């Protein structure tokens, strides 16, 4: 699932790409993604509206519309937003398939594959070959979008388009008013990249749940917004704390170190345009650059980059959890 760094990356890219544009039309191919509105109601309500600003709260994108309403977008597990500029061009994308495969890098000569295909290992997720369309920009090639995973297409007045792809179809778009958006977003906890997320606030959160595991706290969106599996595991590694540690067993210095690690890690991940460890891609279809910097996530069986111990993976509350049992305590 795209987490805070990935959604923030998309927010910044959307701000450059579509802020100020007017929506010409919306095509809904999977009705559940725009509930409670019907596809026709959604399309009518959004048509002719100008996007005046783009914000983010937790993992939710907030598009301000010129009529005072808001378009909310949540990518959930496998959602992707891809922008096609007015001038058609070939864009690299990450197709979504269900099987995983081994790492090998090179250029495919298979005529059934697109030109310039490279591969990367995704442990426990979807394989993400980087595909470039065979169709040239002169021919109007846009790497075969829309495809079978494209469920919403928003077209702007200048003929540019925003595609919402989703393998599992859990993502959604909602048009809401001010009261509705305030109610929905109030359910999220403190933003870890704001001044409100200070050491005192962090300690208060931990103190309320002394018998919980630290990973349960970090991933509880009602307590701290935007942290998911990737950055939870990586933050715990940075603080040399096992994700399974019970809150009341944490020492003062461990709490302080974890507190410092969280925003530092998130800011660094944003600077690298997020992690494409599953199906996340940037607005232009390219993968994020954070994956090579991950220390434990999706590295089961590999050597720890800090102590050379072996990275382990367990299930914690149904979520794959990665850590080094040698240098995390």
Automatic annotation (TrEMBL):
GO molecular function: 8-oxo-7,8-dihydroguanine DNA N-glycosylase activity; class I DNA-(apurinic or apyrimidinic site) endonuclease activity; damaged DNA binding; zinc ion binding
Cofactor(s) essential for the protein: Zn(2+)
Entry keyword annotation includes Metal-binding: yes
SMART domains for the chain: Fapy_DNA_glyco, H2TH
Name of the molecule in the record: Uncharacterized protein
FPG-type domain location: 295-329
Family classification: Belongs to the FPG family.
Assigned keywords, A-Z: DNA damage, DNA repair, DNA-binding, Glycosidase, Hydrolase, Lyase, Metal-binding, Multifunctional enzyme, Zinc, Zinc-finger
The protein's assembly and partners: Monomer.
Recorded superkingdom: Bacteria
Pfam families listed in its UniProt record: Fapy_DNA_glyco (PF01149), H2TH (PF06831), zf-FPG_IleRS (PF06827)
InterPro entries assigned to the protein according to its UniProt record, in alphabetical order: DNA_glyclase_Znf_dom_DNA_BS, FPG_cat, FPG_Glyclase, FPG_N, H2TH_FPG, Ribosomal_uS13-like_H2TH, Znf_DNA_glyclase/AP_lyase, Znf_FPG/IleRS
Catalytic reaction annotation: 2'-deoxyribonucleotide-(2'-deoxyribose 5'-phosphate)-2'-deoxyribonucleotide-DNA = a 3'-end 2'-deoxyribonucleotide-(2,3-dehydro-2,3-deoxyribose 5'-phosphate)-DNA + a 5'-end 5'-phospho-2'-deoxyribonucleoside-DNA + H(+); Hydrolysis of DNA containing ring-opened 7-methylguanine residues, releasing 2,6-diamino-4-hydroxy-5-(N-methyl)formamidopyrimidine
One record GO biological process: base-excision repair
Domain Formamidopyrimidine-DNA glycosylase catalytic: 2-171
Source organism per UniProt: Candidatus Buchananbacteria bacterium RIFCSPHIGHO2_01_FULL_39_14
SUPFAM superfamilies registered for this protein in UniProt: Glucocorticoid receptor-like (DNA-binding domain) (SSF57716), N-terminal domain of MutM-like DNA repair proteins (SSF81624), S13-like H2TH domain (SSF46946)
